[in-house]
Design a protein that fits this description.
4-stranded antiparallel beta sheet, 5-stranded antiparallel beta sheet, single chain, 456 residues, Immunoglobulin-like, alpha+beta, globular, 15 strands
Amino acid sequence: MQWQFLKWRKVGRTAMTAQWRALAVLLVVLSLLAASYSGSAQRQIRGTDQQTTTRANQASEAKKRKLVKPRDPEAMALFMHLLERYANNVPDKSDADLRLEQRLAKSPGSRAAIKRLVGKFRKIAAADRNQLLGSHANISPAMKLPKQRYDTAFRRVAGTVRQIPKLELFAPEEATPTRTGPSSGKRGFDSEPAERTPRDRSAIESGQLFWPLPSAAEFFTFAGGSVPNFGVGIANGYATSASWQNDEYRLIYTGLRCREEAFYDGGTRSDEIYIITSVLDPNDSDRAAVTTKHPQGGAYREGDYYTELDDGNIRQGPNRNCWHSNQWGGGARDLILMVSVFEQDSGNPEETKEEISDAIEAARDLCDACPGWLVFVLDALDFLVDNVFSFEDDLIEKVERRIDARDIPAYVNERDRDHRLRPYEHDGRTINYHFRTIHNAHEGADYRVYFRFNHE
């Protein structure tokens, strides 16, 4: 009986040992399969992310070139000095301080906006600020400077030459972009803008259509502090009457096209984009600029921006006024349109809009007695957009265009409206536009921003 019990125990031990061996073999097999799957998945991820890695490297190189030195470092340092004194509400105010207070008092919340702007400027590393502004980088806001020093520096900028591209009328759209390959770090497109159509050329030759500004390569130049003189643009009866001086016109933002997304966009696989437009009257330094953030309206609130933008995507509107002629007393006006496209990272688009608006007003006030005040305003905004506002959000590009008052009626001429209002169609969506601005200077991105005029 005892022998039989020992035999059964031995058999049980043998069976359990076999089960453990089978389990061990199974675990080894599962481990090998898991390792194989993991290696395959890693290879797949590496292959999928190759383009993203290339973009990140290119973005890293681009960020090293992010700082843009102003044409006149002392003038921009003094401009920032006055803004910082205003933000700190210094008690010992100079004449320049008092003028700035009076101008910005018209804008509720301007001190808070300028304080944020100055805070962004101070976040720039001291070495980088020194690189931008040289020996003028560290003027204390507690220091009260003589008015002559400000005037001399600001007038020096206002007396320089600045070219503003003329608006290109009826610009055709380009074809879809094609890449030359992710490893090359270069970007290519399968065609340049199309030639004018035979219908366009015959209309011009017969006098049915006047094409006053055929190329964005033509510039309007402010030289030596000269007063703007826009002259006559439209002919052939489009603006022969005085009605264009009294009728109501609107400049409307209608949409955005992502021709190519940024190399690197804050760790996401798509771009988050917003646009700031500013419209100035080049003939009147006392007329307030109109600054607007897009998108806004409909589902988009004040701080919102476009999300999930990839190559080829478009966004329709929401249509929103960038300028309405009744804001400036009615009638078509000479306009300077500035359009800045940002890739949102950590900034607040609505706050950026407020800061840009107040910075324009400050720059206009500090140089409004100069014939070339517009040059100073544009230089100051260049400095801020390139180096300060882009500290939190990546700047794609800021562009500016001159629009003649007498050209505006050509866009809304009833005799040939369909020819002038062009559709851009993609994925069943249509953006109607009269002209578009092109933004592709930074971050490897390429965007188109669309606008139209409306006649009332």
